[in-house]
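Researcher: We're teaching a course module on how sequence relates to structure. For the next exercise, students receive a sequence and then see the predicted structure as tokens, so they can try to spot secondary structure elements on their own. Here is the exercise chain.
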Amino acid sequence: MTSIRKLVFRRRPLRLRLPRLAVCGLACVVAGTGAAASAAPTVGQWTPLQAPVPGTARVDPAVSVRQLTCADAEDCVGVGSFAKQTAGRGGLIEQLSEGTWTATQAPLPVGAPANAQVVLSSVGCPTTVWCGVAGYFDTPTARHPLSAVLNGGQWQVRAVPPVAGALPGSLTTLSSISCPTAGQCVAVGRYQDGAGRYQGLIARLSGGLWRTSRAPLPADAAQNPVGNLEWVSCAGAGKCTAVGAYVNKKGARVLTLDVLSSGTWTAAKGTLPSDAASDPLAYLGYLTCLSADDCTAVGNYSTTAGATEGLILRELDGNWHAITAPLPGDADPEDPRASISEVSCPTDSFCAATGGYRTSDDTFGAVIETLTHGMWKAIPAPAPVEDLTGRYLASVSCPTARFCIAGGSTDFNGLLDQYYHGRWSATVAPLPNPGFHALFRTNSVSCAAYLECVAFGSYTKNSDTSPQGQGLLETFSR
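Model: And here is the predicted structure for the students to work with:
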């Protein structure tokens, strides 16, 4: 799904720089610079594999990656899409089982056209033998929600009914799914109501059937809220939180936090730092929850000075706090155009987050945010000495407070940065065969346990005829 608001980096002339605003919210923010990648300790190595594709794929499958999750080190599922030999794109499911990766084209509901444009957005695997995936498929007249489950070793379609009163031909998307137990999932996204207005969508899977409803909104929502839910995280059955955004009665784009408790969804307006603009154009794209009242969400917002800053929201003991994400000292003090893309919190006292920002010399850098000892600290993401081009980190997974893997890219190479012994270091993602432009996007790294990680990305493979957009699977071993 195309997000309501996602940051797009573009070069533009620098303007007069203003002093950077400092915020002290839930925890004081400390910005710093990172040590050289070569000086940081490392452990293990990555083994690359060209991702298999279904037999229906083109020679150039143009693989697009959306999410990877691992129930354990030997059982992982990644989702995305690929170009088919016939017209259209198919939903791609990559599955690791007993040391072997297999590729499956996602099944479609009966009656769906063969040339539908299919995207799988998200996957949740509470066990090694049961998973749920969510996404959508486009036809010439509508966008339809799509879901399938892995049960008994087979992928099976689960029909997602329209919300009562939805517009015929609604553009409906499922952007995220969370499955706390086998057979139970919650998916979120958006749809068009009978008047064609976008509303947040909540779908619940139980007993093999999906049930859909309109997401609640805070009391200040406009009649046309342009509603959307981006991400959902369920700490347990019946205990879920979803994040999104809507337009209020003043015409401002603000945040919504929807919470499922005791069988009922309730909505609250998301808090923002004190320097947020009256129309903050607020966006949250990712959320993780350790428990029902301990969650962390990340994104970006606009300030009164017109800058775009990274945003971190933390919920502790049921209370939400917002801070401006710290940035390294080389960030443009006028407008860093920052965004935080993903966060991983294995404990309530340690988190790591990744994102990007603009530097004072008008280049683009990757940032790593680390929460330790009650403080968030930012460093420029380590990069290989031989490649100091623009870079961005999009994904991060921390199975413990001692070890993390962050995935992203430079202009030329895939990056798999490692947190080990309290330091970050850079690794260029190896390729399975000659190629270039390896890339890891948001939600593309999953560490099931300490030193047990897998990454799912893409790269351009050299060939005798023309370059091919292949999938890239990386397995970490000690």
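Model: If you want an answer key for the exercise: The chain has one domain: 30-45+109-445. The radius of gyration is 21 Å.
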